[in-house]
Design goal:
Family: Belongs to the phosphoenolpyruvate carboxykinase (ATP) family.
Distance between the termini: 45 Å
Strand content: 25-35%
Mean pLDDT: 94
CATH class of the largest domain: Alpha Beta
Number of strands: 30
Largest sheet: 8 strands, mixed
Radius of gyration: 23 Å
Low-confidence stretches: 1-5
GO molecular function: ATP binding; phosphoenolpyruvate carboxykinase (ATP) activity
Pathway: Carbohydrate biosynthesis; gluconeogenesis
Number of domains: 2
Enzyme class: lyase
CATH architecture of the largest domain: Alpha-Beta Complex
EC number: 4.1.1.49
Shape: globular
CATH topology of the largest domain: Phosphoenolpyruvate Carboxykinase, domain 3
Structural class: alpha+beta
Number of helices: 11
Length: 503
């Protein structure tokens, strides 16, 4: 409420009409946007544009939304200043469609100053062109503002990104609200990738399996989602989404980004990630904070500017990407972790899956808080963009997967115990393939308290038994469970039955 006791005027009504405003270039082509950004471009050896930003990660500690945070008059002024900037500065205004699902498609409008056209170029390459509808969600990004602040009005669909020139802020401003809006529809937004796998089962019959991967940035989500699983025709595995999707009540999974992917490039290697490497070295890619020499030579292995170097790549250049972005039916959900006390894979019941969802155990990366990169962290749903009660999010996840009878797993993409045993891409891909085939044999292991593989074709599971790689395993496992229980106790809205299932 304002001081007069009346509702404040919706900020979106303060925004200019981009079709008539003299200070706005409305929906320019990608070629025109690149021309606006030409002064900041280094052209790579592949002919793609490369840019360097001042901010190189999200400003999570400067982000507030009007549902979970108390908004003051100062916060309201920040939002008003952003709206006013759209009407006063020379701006690019770009509309794009996020999603294709009949129940989860939103028109997104981004305002960004012309001198920061590189932000608009990268962002516009992620989403498909508009069909002319009015915007559902609007973001104004003003990097020159004298304070760094991200403020969100979820109900109004308006985000102000002030004082940061990081492209990831623009991208997540819309994906955050995509997840919020789909939750209002009875679904659940997920910081996750999705893929469709077609394989022969143990009897030789063809089966289609929908897989979804929840994980923080830089934990292997893009690698596993985009991996073709080394299958030969007629078997195949195709990526549908890389970053954010929505599990809907009917079991379908709605995609969000229809044109591109925003991938991490540090350490990108052709041998390990051939599909991603090929797309990142195509002329259609847009590089951000990648080490690029003046002559255009690209060094993906070098963290010259940041370990959070990025590239927007095109789905059309990614061999494993399907034409579709929506998954008809989810069958398997994977929680990607780097916790060294977890096995390469464990099968979870619905309550344990909700525990894994709430724990969101991983390691901090340079995409989140660079100062804490490498530290063990917990993020509910491995999703730093949840709006609303996190406990209710966990309850809702449990109820959805129970109703849909989805199989859930936690998968470790790091190392075991004392780092003596790595779980590499080969091991993870073997596990994913055989889970899709339905050929993994399971056993309830008393020592770990988990359901772990007794047999996986192509993998010697005995080599990956976690207690064999940890000194004083029982002591470490007990301490971990106590930490987990203490962590879950802070979520008052979380169903006690979920807390009781802590492993």
């Amino acid at each position: 409420m304002s001081e007069t006791g009346t509702e404040p005027r919706p900020l979106t009504r303060r925004l200019p009409d981009p079709e008539t405003a003299s200070n706005i270039v409305y929906n320019p082509s990608l070629e025109e946007i690149r021309e606006f950004a030409s002064a900041d471009e280094t052209t790579t050896e592949y002919g793609s544009p490369s840019y360097v930003s001042e901010f190189r990660s999200r400003s999570a500690d400067r982000t507030k939304n009007a549902i979970d945070d108390e908004f003051t008059d100062a916060d309201r002024r920040l939002l008003e200043d952003a709206a006013d900037a759209a009407g006063e500065r020379e701006m690019l205004c770009v509309d794009r469609l996020m999603g294709r699902h009949p129940d989860a498609t939103f028109c997104c409008r981004l305002f960004v100053p012309t001198e920061y056209a590189r932000i608009a170029l990268a962002w516009a390459n992620l989403f498909e062109p508009t069909d002319g509808r009015e915007p559902d969600l609007v973001t104004v990004q003003d990097p020159d503002y004298d304070e760094t602040a991200i403020r969100i009005l979820p109900e109004e669909g308006f985000t102000a990104v002030l004082g940061s020139d990081y492209t990831g802020e623009a991208k997540k401003s819309f994906l955050r609200l995509f997840m919020y809006r789909t939750k209002q529809l009875g679904g659940l937004g997920l910081h996750a990738g999705s893929k469709r796998v077609r394989v022969r089962d143990g009897d030789g019959d063809m089966r289609i399996v929908g897989q979804v991967f929840l994980g923080l940035s830089a934990t292997g989500k893009s690698t596993l989602t985009s991996h073709g699983l080394w299958l030969d025709d007629p078997e195949d595995a195709v990526m549908l989404q890389d970053d954010v999707c929505a599990l809907l009540p009917d079991g379908s999974v709605a995609g969000s980004e229809g044109q591109g992917l925003y991938i991490k490039t540090i350490g990108l290697e052709e041998d390990e990630q051939p599909a991603l490497y090929q797309a990142a070295t195509d002329g259609s890619a847009v590089l951000e904070n990648v080490a690029v020499d003046d002559d255009g030579t690209v060094h993906f292995e070098e963290n010259r500017y940041t370990s959070n170097s990025r590239a927007v790549i095109q789905r059309s250049e990614l061999e494993s990407a399907d034409d579709e972005i929506d998954l008809d039916r989810v069958d398997q959900v994977f929680f990607i972790t780097r916790n060294p006390l977890m096995p390469p894979v464990a099968k979870l019941d619905e309550e344990e899956a909700a525990v894994a969802f709430m724990l969101g155990e991983s390691i901090e990366t340079s995409a989140g808080d660079p100062s804490r990169a490498g530290e063990s962290i917990r993020v509910v749903g491995t999703n730093p963009f949840i709006i609303g009660s996190e406990g209710e999010e966990g309850n809702h996840f449990r109820d959805l997967i129970a109703d849909l009878e989805v199989d859930c797993y936690v998968i470790n993409t790091g190392y075991l115990g004392d780092e003596s045993k790595d779980v590499g891409v080969t091991e993870s891909v073997t596990i994913l393939t055989e889970l899709a085939r339905g050929t993994v044999e399971w056993t309830d292991d008393d020592r770990t308290g988990l359901t772990i593989p007794e047999g996986v074709p192509g993998l010697d599971v005995e080599e990956y038994y976690v207690p064999d790689h940890v000194d004083d395993y029982e002591e470490a496992a007990t301490a971990l469970r106590e930490e987990r229980l203490e962590y879950l106790e802070k979520f008052d809205d979380l169903d006690p039955e979920i807390k009781d299932a802590t492993y």
